[in-house]
User: Which sequence fits this backbone?
C-alpha cells in the first residue's frame, strides 16, 4: 500500500506519537469542550428561567417554561447545529479544513456571550432573543464536528488514530462536567450572598432579582475556553491530505508536514496527478456503490444514539425530580434549585460520562471501533430496560442510589460505546475529498435524533395523570414507558452497527480505497459486507 501512497501521507501514517499530536488534540478538543458546555448548560438553568419569567401569582408550584418555549430553548441550538454540520462539512471539503476552522470558533465565542446578554421588555422578548443567539451558537458548534474530526484523523498516525480522534471527542465529557461545576460555584455564591425563603414560604421573595444574573453568567462562561484556543487554531497548517489529495498541491503538503514532523519530505506531483483521475462526487453511482451503505450505517447509528443520549442528558433534572432525588420545587428557592440540579448532573458526569469517554480512548485501537459500538448499544439497551421495567421499584427512597448507579452505567456505555465511535468512524472511512461532508451528514443525522429526543421526550415523559403534568403540557406516556421506548431505540442501534466497517490499524487511503483501482475496491467491499467484525 505504501508503494501507491504519497510519501508525505505514508510519513504521517507511520510517524511516532509526537508533541504535535497532543497539541492538535488540545486545540481541536477545546472546541468540543466548549460545544458540550454550551449545549448542555442550558439544561441547568431552564427551571430558573421558568421561575424568573413565568411566575404565576398565587400558583401552588413555581413558574415553569411553557411547553413551546421549553422545546424551543432546549432544541433550537440543535437545529442550528444540524445546519452547521451540513454547511461547514461541505465547506471544509470545498475551501479546506483550516480556512473555516477559525470561523466556527469565533461564532461560538460571540454567540455564547450574546446568549447571556439576551434582552427584552417581556418574557417572550428575552426568550426569543435567547433562542436566536442559541441557534447561531449551534450553527458554529455544528461546524466544529466535521472539521475537528477530519483534521485530527488526517494528522494522526494509523496505529493510534482512533485514540486521538476519541480524545478530541472525550473533551466533551470535561465540558459537561465543567458546566455543572460552574453552575455549582455561581449558584452557591449567589445563594450565600442573597438569602431567600423557599417558594412555599414566600413565592415572590423565593426568586431574588439577582437570580437573573445566575443563568447569564453560566451561559456566557462558555466563551472563555473557545477564545483561549483561537490563536492556536489559526497557527495550524492545512492537513496534508487535503492539500495533496483535494487541492492537488503536493509541494505545499510536503513543505507543511516537513515542519510538523521535522523531517525532509519530497513532493510527488506525478502521484497527485494520478490521484486526480480517480475523483468522484457524493451523488454518483461510484460513491453509492463504494460508500452508500457505510454512510447509511454511520448516519442511522448516530441518529439512534442521539435520541436516547440527548433526551436523557437534557432532562436529567426531570428524571431526578420524578424519583425524588431532587426535592419538590416549592420546597426550595430559585437559586438553590439550580445548585441541586447542577449537583445531580455533575455526579452523573463524574461517575459515568467522563470515565466512559476515556475507556474508549484507551481501548479503541486495541479492540476496535466495531466491537466498542456494538457492546455500547447492547449494554445501553440492557440498562435502559433495567431502569424501565421495575421503574416503580426505583422510585422508593431506599432504592434511589441503585437508580443513580444504573443511570450512570447507561451513560458510561454510551460514552464507552457509540457516542464516541459514531464520531470517530465517519472521519476515517470516506475519501479525503468527501470526508468532511460525509462526517457532517452523519453528525447532522445525529442532531436530528437529538431534536427528536429533546422535543419528543419533553412531552412523552409527562405523567399519564392530567393532574400531575407540568403546567401547559398534555398527558404523556410517563417516564417508565419513555425509558422503554429509548431501550428499543438502542436495540435498533445494535442492528445498524452491522453496516459500519472496521478501520482499526489501516491508513485512511486503505480504508476508503483511494489508492486502489475500481475493481479491487469493489471486490474488497463485497468481502467486507459478508464479514464486518474484524478477526
Assistant:
Amino acid at each position: 500500500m505504501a508503494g501507491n501512497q504519497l510519501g508525505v501521507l505514508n510519513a504521517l501514517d507511520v510517524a511516532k506519537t509526537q508533541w504535535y499530536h497532543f497539541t492538535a488534540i488540545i486545540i481541536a478538543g477545546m472546541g468540543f469542550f466548549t460545544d458540550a458546555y454550551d449545549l448542555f448548560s442550558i439544561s441547568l438553568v431552564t427551571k430558573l428561567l421558568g421561575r424568573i419569567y413565568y411566575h404565576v401569582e398565587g400558583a401552588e408550584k413555581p413558574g415553569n417554561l411553557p411547553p413551546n418555549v421549553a422545546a424551543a430553548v432546549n432544541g433550537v441550538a440543535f437545529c442550528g447545529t444540524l445546519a452547521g454540520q451540513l454547511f461547514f462539512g461541505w465547506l471544509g471539503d470545498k475551501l479546506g479544513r483550516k480556512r473555516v476552522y477559525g470561523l466556527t470558533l469565533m461564532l461560538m465565542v460571540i454567540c455564547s456571550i450574546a446568549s447571556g446578554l439576551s434582552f427584552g421588555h417581556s418574557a417572550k422578548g428575552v426568550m426569543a432573543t435567547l433562542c436566536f443567539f442559541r441557534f447561531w451558537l449551534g450553527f458554529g458548534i455544528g461546524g466544529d464536528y466535521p472539521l475537528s474530526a477530519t483534521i485530527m484523523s488526517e494528522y494522526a498516525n494509523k496505529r493510534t488514530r482512533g485514540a486521538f480522534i476519541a480524545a478530541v471527542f472525550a473533551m466533551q465529557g470535561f465540558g459537561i462536567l465543567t458546566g455543572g461545576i460552574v453552575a455549582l460555584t455561581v449558584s452557591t455564591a449567589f445563594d450565600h450572598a442573597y438569602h431567600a425563603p423557599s417558594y412555599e414560604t414566600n413565592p415572590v421573595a423565593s426568586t431574588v432579582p439577582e437570580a437573573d444574573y445566575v443563568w447569564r453568567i453560566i451561559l456566557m462562561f462558555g466563551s472563555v475556553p473557545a477564545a483561549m484556543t483561537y490563536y492556536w487554531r489559526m497557527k495550524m497548517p492545512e492537513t496534508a491530505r487535503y492539500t495533496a489529495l483535494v487541492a492537488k498541491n503536493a509541494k505545499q503538503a510536503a513543505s507543511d508536514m516537513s515542519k510538523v514532523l521535522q523531517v525532509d519530505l519530497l513532493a510527488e506531483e506525478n502521484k497527485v496527478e494520478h490521484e486526480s483521475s480517480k475523483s468522484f462526487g457524493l451523488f454518483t453511482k461510484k460513491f453509492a456503490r463504494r460508500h452508500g451503505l457505510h454512510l447509511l450505517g454511520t448516519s442511522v447509528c448516530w441518529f439512534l444514539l442521539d435520541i436516547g443520549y440527548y433526551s436523557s442528558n437534557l432532562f436529567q433534572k426531570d428524571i431526578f425530580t420524578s424519583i425524588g432525588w431532587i426535592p419538590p420545587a416549592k420546597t426550595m428557592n430559585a437559586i438553590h434549585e439550580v445548585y441541586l440540579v447542577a449537583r445531580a448532573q455533575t455526579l452523573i458526569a463524574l461517575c459515568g460520562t467522563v470515565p466512559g469517554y476515556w475507556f474508549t480512548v484507551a481501548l479503541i485501537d486495541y479492540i476496535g471501533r466495531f466491537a466498542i459500538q456494538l457492546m455500547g448499544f447492547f449494554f445501553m439497551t440492557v440498562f435502559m430496560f433495567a431502569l424501565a421495567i421495575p421503574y416503580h421499584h426505583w422510585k422508593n427512597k431506599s432504592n434511589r442510589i441503585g437508580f443513580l448507579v444504573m443511570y450512570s452505567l447507561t451513560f458510561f456505555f454510551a460514552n464507552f460505546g457509540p457516542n464516541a465511535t459514531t464520531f470517530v468512524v465517519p472521519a476515517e472511512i470516506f475519501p479525503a475529498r468527501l470526508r468532511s461532508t460525509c462526517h457532517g451528514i452523519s453528525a447532522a443525522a445525529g442532531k436530528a435524533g437529538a431534536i427528536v429526543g429533546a422535543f419528543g421526550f419533553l412531552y412523552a415523559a409527562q405523567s399519564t395523570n392530567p393532574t400531575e403534568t407540568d403546567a401547559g403540557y398534555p398527558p404523556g406516556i410517563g417516564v417508565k414507558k419513555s425509558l422503554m421506548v429509548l431501550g428499543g431505540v438502542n436495540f435498533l442501534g445494535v442492528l445498524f452497527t452491522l453496516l459500519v466497517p472496521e478501520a482499526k490499524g489501516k491508513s485512511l487511503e486503505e480504508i476508503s480505497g483511494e489508492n486502489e483501482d475500481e475493481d479491487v475496491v469493489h471486490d474488497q467491499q463485497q468481502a467486507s459486507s459478508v464479514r464486518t467484525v474484524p478477526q
